[in-house]
Amino acid sequence: MKKIEIGLFGFGVVGEGIYEVLKAKKQLGANIKKVVIKHPNKKRNAPQELFTTDAHEILNDPSINLVVELIDDADAAFEIVKKSFAQGKSVVSANKKMIAEHHQELIALSRQHGVAFLYEASVCGSVPIIRNLEEYFDNDLLHSVQGIVNGSTNYILSQMTEEGTDYSTALKDAQACGFAENDPTLDVEGTDAAYKLSIIALHAFGKKIEAQNIICKGITALDAFDFQYAKEKNSVIKLIAKCHTNQEGTLEALTVVPTFVSKENSLGRTNNEYNGVLVESALADEQFFYGKGAGRYPTSSAVLSDISAYRYGYQYEYKKGNTHFVEDENCKGTFYISYPKTYNLNKLIFSSIEKEFTSTNRSFTIGELTFGMLKKSKIISTPGISVISLN
Ligand code: HSE
After folding, report:
1. d(Cα 302, Cα 125) in Å, to the nearest integer?
2. What residues does each domain of the chain span?
3. Residue 84 CA: distances (Å) to CA of 24, 102, 309
4. What is the number of the ligand 1 atom nearest to the C-alpha of 154?
5. For residue 69, how far is its CA from the centre of ligand 1 (angstroms)?
6. Which residues are within 8 A (CB) of 344 and not within 5 positions of it... i.e. 6 or more apart?
7. Closest-CA residue to 337 (of 311, 367, 361)
8. Which one of 16, 84, 123, 348 has the fewest CB atoms closer than 10 angstroms to its CB?
């Protein structure tokens, strides 16, 4: 059995989790030799001699063959990963921001140095979606991949819907549970989900899109009025990341937007920190992947799976290609847009209007509009305006 000597970067929620798991499971034959940390004076539940603040203790150690990168700072992580590759070390990472921002370069560098670069833990925590999209759905024509890919926002929305918790208490709870990013705006503004969707699109459809070009709306503008509307329709609001093809099988659009989902369907029943990904394909029809998307042990389980995959020489092959994605701006969707009664919504943005409603304080309009118009109108970034997909 190939001996795995690990250099670990980061000893936060997931770093400590993976340390504990590997310590308990000696039969895995993977040993953490050194851990690089930023704050040496912080009390940690591991022997002091394991820690260093000097990255070279890992990078220059020839006995370390695998770097596990679990730090928060995406720029620092990018430097660590590049240097690790240059030293002939394979890398397991959970850093979705770094991967989404530098995917092409990281793939090219790992190939150039003949090392593995694995990142199952970067998308949906414990849910094994990347390797499945890469391997299992290689032969079956994919129509769409959509899902709840951010545990924190799903936790917040579930608590608000099911328990009547207010937004800021639910967010604090998500932070206390270790689900949220250090900067939770990445979660609540949908950015974290956009990073993950960008990674998914490459493995599902062989297309690369920068996260900042994905139509993205988080959960901060949602109003009690919207939750009430969802309830009347026997629906719930979920933050859904989606990529889908047109009838010719060409990838058409990528979106991260709050979406009305029936309470009864698989995504509607995915609550709290759980993630769920619905894959639609020509032969298999619908398949649903479900599991914990955030937190110490669920994320550690994906890191562990990559460590094990490294042992048997697994590498992503990007068999579906790796070309740049250009969105079809004419692609249409049906959206519910709610706004304060005093706001003057430009109705010309809609290609057609299905329904309008006004109450004492707030109004909504439901209609069809092109994704190009959705972007151009800037309605998605206007504070206090809710945009919720009905598709
Ligand atoms: N903040 C992320 C989430 C952590 O809530 O899903 C897991 O990627």
Report:
1. 6
2. 4-119
3. 27, 15, 18
4. 5
5. 16
6. none
7. 367
8. 348
Residue nearest atom 7 of ligand 1, based on CA coordinates:
294
Closest ligand 1 atom to Cα of 152: 5
Note the pLDDT tens digit of each residue in 299-345: 999 999 999 999 999 999 999 999 999 888 999 999 999 999 999 99
Q: Ligand 1 mean position to 113 CA, how many Å?
A: 30
Digit-coded pLDDT (tens) for 198-237: 999 999 999 999 999 999 999 999 999 999 999 999 999 9
CA of 259 to the centre of ligand 1 (A): 19
141 DSSP 8-state letter = P
Pocket residues: Cβ below 6 A from ligand 1: 125, 150-152, 179-181, 187, 192, 293-294
CA distances from 241 to 20, 57, 257, 351, 352 (A): 32, 39, 7, 23, 24
Q: How far apart are CA 275 and CA 304, in angstroms?
A: 19
Report CA(216)–ligand 1 centroid distance (Å).
16
Give the sign of the dihedral formed by CA 42, CA 46, CA 52, CA 53. Answer: negative
Which residue minimizes the CA distance to atom 1 of ligand 1?
180
Superfamily of domain 4-119: NAD(P)-binding Rossmann-like Domain (3.40.50.720)
Going 239 to 375 to 75 to 182, the CA torsion angle's sign is: negative
User: Binning pLDDT at 50, 70 and 90, where does residue 364 land?
Assistant: very high
Write out the catalytic residue numbers: 196
Taking the C-alpha atoms of residue 333 and residue 390, their distance in angstroms, rounded to an integer, is 8
Predicted TM-score (pTM) of the model is 0.97
